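Translate sequence into structure tokens.
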Amino acid sequence: MAASYLDLFIDQGTDYNNQIALDDANGHAYNLVGFSVSSAAKTSYYNPNTAFIFVSTVYDPINGIIQLSANSATTANVSAQQKLIYDVIITDPNGLKSRVLEGNIYVSPGVTGINLTS
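Result follows.
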């Protein structure tokens, strides 16, 4: 099954928390009991380095809801001038990994408390 596509919007220098409901191919909520989740952002699929790693949790396993988070220190260090991509991988209790979500990340530049050097 192909991963679903969802673009994310992050305000630079703020805490980011997003709860996302995952559905299977039939439109039913994933049962994520016993699953783990991971997610990272990069500037390119081919760049070996991550821009940042989301704190990823199974928020509501019965209803298939995950949570992706990044604190303000993390989002402050993300340039609003670069395109980012991400994906979400779930791992079932037997260790089988599946990519369930992917997309672009758009960062809205911040002013207050942001001290980036070029």
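Note: Strands lie at 4-5, 8-11, 16-21, 36-42, 52-53, 55-60, 65-70, 84-91, 97-108.
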